[in-house]
C-alpha cells in the first residue's frame, strides 16, 4: 500500500491540541481527533520527505491492538475514521466543514483524558540502550541483571523499565522509587502490572505469526479515576519487531521499523542535528515495505 502523496502536515479548521513528531491532535468537541502523518523522525529530528503510507499503517496496527487488548485494560478509542462523514456527529451543524479525504484510515476519534506523563517501557529481550547499559554496569534501568547475558538474548522474565516523558527533550530512565514518588505507589504498581500484561499478550500473539516483539512502550491516561491505554500500541514505532526466522542470540537484529533510515544516516556521517538530510528513494521504499510487512504479518490482512 503506497499513497500517491506523502502527508507531512495537516491543517484543519479545528483547535490544535498537540503536534507530535508523527501525530497531529485536534480538539473535536469534547473529544480528540488524532491523525497519524507520514512524518518520520530519527535521533529526535523530523526528517524531510516522510515515508508514504506510514501513518495509515501505524493507525491500523494500533487500532488492531487496541481491540485485542481491551480485555486487559480499556483504551481511549471511540471510532476509527474509515469514512470522513462519521465526523459530522461530533460537531454541531454550524461548526462542520468539508473533511479532507486523507483522514480516512489514518485517524481516530478518542476520549480526552489526563495523560500520565510516563513512558511505560517493557523489555523481553536485552537490546538497544538496555544492552549498552548492561555491558557497562550489569544493570538495566539500574536493576541488577543475571550475569553472562548476550546481546538480543531473551530475559528470564519481561521487565518494566519506565522513563520520563519529556516535552522537547530526551526521555530519561526512571527507577521504580522515582516513579512511585511521581505518581504514587498504587498507580505505579498498576502501570507496571498493565504494561507487563499487555506486552505478554502482544508477544505471545506475535510469536504465532513469526515475529518477536523484543520490547515496547505504552502510554496511559486517567479517564476520571480509571486507568486506560492511550496514544499507540505495539507498532513498529513504539516497539522492536524481529523476524523469528533470522533471530540470532549474540548479535544485533534487523527490525521491522525505520532501521534502513538509521543505517543510512549513520553511514553518511550525519551529525544528528537539524535539519535532517533528504532520504534517497531506495531507503524510503525499503522503510515503507518494512512497515507494511509488519502490519500484514501481525494482522493477517493484506494492505490494498
TrEMBL record:
> Which biological pathway?
Purine metabolism; IMP biosynthesis via de novo pathway; 5-amino-1-(5-phospho-D-ribosyl)imidazole-4-carboxamide from 5-amino-1-(5-phospho-D-ribosyl)imidazole-4-carboxylate: step 1/2
Q: What would you give as a GO molecular function for this chain, any one?
A: ATP binding
EC number(s) reported in the record: 6.3.2.6
GO CC terms in record: cytoplasm
- Name the Gene3D superfamilies on file: ATP-grasp fold, B domain (3.30.470.20), Phosphorylase Kinase, domain 1 (3.30.200.20)
Instruction: From the UniProt record, list the coiled-coil ranges.
Output: none
Residue ranges of every copy of the SAICAR synthetase/ADE2 N-terminal domain listed in the record: 17-273
Q: Which PANTHER family match?
A: PHOSPHORIBOSYLAMINOIMIDAZOLE-SUCCINOCARBOXAMIDE SYNTHASE (PTHR43700:SF1)
HAMAP family, alphabetized: SAICAR_synth
The molecule here is called: Phosphoribosylaminoimidazole-succinocarboxamide synthase
Amino acid at each position: 500500500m503506497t499513497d500517491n502523496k506523502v502527508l507531512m502536515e495537516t491543517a484543519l479548521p479545528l483547535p490544535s491540541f498537540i503536534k507530535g513528531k508523527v501525530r497531529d491532535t485536534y480538539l473535536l468537541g469534547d473529544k480528540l481527533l488524532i491523525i497519524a502523518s507520514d512524518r518520520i523522525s530519527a535521533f529526535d529530528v523530523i526528517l524531510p520527505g516522510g515515508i508514504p503510507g506510514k501513518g495509515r499503517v501505524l493507525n491500523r496496527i494500533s487500532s488492531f491492538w487496541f481491540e485485542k487488548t481491551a480485555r486487559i485494560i480499556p483504551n481511549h478509542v471511540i471510532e476509527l475514521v474509515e469514512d470522513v462523514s462519521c465526523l459530522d456527529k461530533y460537531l454541531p451543524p454550524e461548526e462542520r466543514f468539508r473533511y479532507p479525504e486523507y483522514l480516512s484510515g489514518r485517524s481516530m476519534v478518542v476520549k480526552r483524558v489526563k495523560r500520565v506523563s510516563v513512558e511505560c517501557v517493557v523489555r523481553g529481550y536485552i537490546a538497544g540502550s538496555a544492552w549498552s547499559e548492561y555491558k557497562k554496569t550489569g544493570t538495566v534501568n539500574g536493576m541488577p541483571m543475571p550475569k553472562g547475558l548476550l546481546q538480543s538474548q531473551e530475559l528470564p522474565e519481561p521487565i518494566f523499565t519506565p522513563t520520563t516523558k519529556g516535552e522537547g527533550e530526551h526521555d530519561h530512565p526512571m527507577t521504580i522509587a522515582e516513579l512511585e514518588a511521581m505518581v504514587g505507589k498504587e498507580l505505579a504498581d498498576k502501570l507496571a502490572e498493565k504494561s507487563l500484561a499487555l506486552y505478554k499478550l502482544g508477544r505471545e500473539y506475535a510469536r504465532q505469526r513469526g515475529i518477536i516483539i523484543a520490547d515496547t512502550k505504552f502510554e496511559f491516561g486517567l479517564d476520571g479515576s480509571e486507568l486506560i491505554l492511550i496514544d499507540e500500541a505495539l507498532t513498529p514505532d513504539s516497539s522492536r519487531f524481529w523476524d523469528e526466522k533470522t533471530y540470532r542470540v549474540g548479535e544485533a537484529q534487523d527490525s521491522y521499523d525505520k532501521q534502513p533510515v538509521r543505517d543510512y544516516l549513520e553511514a553518511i556521517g550525519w551529525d544528528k542535528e537539524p535539519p535532517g538530510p533528504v532520504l534517497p528513494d531506495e531507503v524510503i521504499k525499503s522503510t515503507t515495505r518494512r512497515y507494511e510487512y509488519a502490519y500484514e504479518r501481525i494482522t493477517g490482512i493484506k494492505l490494498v
